[in-house]
Amino acid sequence: EAKAAGKNTFCFFESEMAQRLRDRHRLEYDLRCAVERNELVLNYQPIVDSRTRQTLGFEALVRWEHPLHGRVQPDHFIPLAEQTGAICGIGAWVLREACRNAASWGDHLTVAVNVSVDQFRHGTIMTDVEDALASSGLAADRLELEITESLFIDDPEAVVTVLHRLRSLGVRIALDDFGTGYSSLSYLRKFPFDKLKIDRSFVNAIKDDRIAHGILETILALGRVLDLSVTAEGVEDAEQIDILTRMTCNQFQGYYFSRPMEAADLGAYLLRDFCATAETSRASCVALA
Ligand code: C2E
Ligand code: MG
Ligand code: MG
Ligand code: MG
C-alpha cells in the first residue's frame, strides 16, 4: 500500500514538474514573439527636482500584455528574457519606443531607459542607441541609460570603453539600484557616470533604520565629491522627502509623486505639474513682493 502511495506521489510530482517545464517553455516562446506581436508597452514614471519639485523627465518601465496571463511585470519576464537571449530584441525595442515617445515631449524633458548587461555582452548597445536616436530625432543629451553594477562582473575594461563611446554621443549614464550590487567604490572613479540612483530599499528604511540613514548620508556625500547627481528611488511619503531634502538629495522618484503612467497620460500629468509649479512660483513671488 505504502509503496503504491509513494509511486503515486512520485508520478504526481513528475507530472507537476513536467507541467511547469512546459509552462516555462511556452512562456519563453511567447516572450520571443512579444516584440513582433506588439505586446510590450512602456509606462513612464516622473523624476522630480528636489528643490523646485519640477518634473525633469521620466523613466521608461516595460510591461508585457500577455494575451492569456494579462499584464506581466518586468521582474517576472526580464530575468527570463535574459536567460533566453530575448532581452536584446526587447532592449532594442524599448530604446526605440522610449526615444520615439520622448521626442514628442517638451525639449527640457529627459527619458531614462534601463539596459541589461546582455546588451553590452552581445555588443548591440551602441548601434541600438544610435538607431533609436536617429529614427526618433531625439537629442542625445535627453537620453539617459540606467545600468546596474552587475555590468562590472565580467569585463570592466570592455565596458568602460563602450560607456565612453556612448557618452561621446552625448548620452548620460546613471548607475541604478546603487548600494545593492557588486559595488566597488573604485568603479566610481574609473567609470564615466553622471548619476547615482539610490535603491529604494534604503529609502524605505530611512525613518527607523540608523544604518540605512547613515548609508544614505554617505552616498550623498560621495555624490557631492564625485560631482554626480543623486536620485532617491521609491519615495513614498513626505517624511522621507523631508529627511532626503535635508541630506541635499538632488532628485526624487516614487509613488509619492506618481506611479508609472501610460504614455498617453503624460500630457495631462505635465499640465497639472506645470500649473502646480507655476502656482508655487507665483506664491513665492507674492511672498517676495
Ligand atoms: P528599476 O529600474 O529600479 O525601476 C524602479 C522600480 O521601482 C519600478 O518597478 C517602479 O515601478 C518601482 N517603483 C517606483 N517608485 C516606487 C515606490 O514609491 N514604491 C515602490 N514599492 N516601487 C516603486 P518595475 O516597473 O516593476 O520595474 C522593476 C525592474 O525591472 C526595474 O527596476 C528594472 O530593473 C527592470 N526593468 C524595467 N523596465 C526595463 C527595461 O525596459 N529593460 C530592462 N533591462 N529592465 C527593465
Ligand atoms: Mg531603473
Ligand atoms: Mg532602481
Ligand atoms: Mg531594479
From TrEMBL:
It comes from the Bacteria. Residues 24-274 form the EAL domain. This is Putative sensory box/GGDEF family protein. It comes from Aurantimonas manganoxydans (strain ATCC BAA-1229 / DSM 21871 / SI85-9A1). The chain holds residues 502 to 790 of 792 of the full protein.
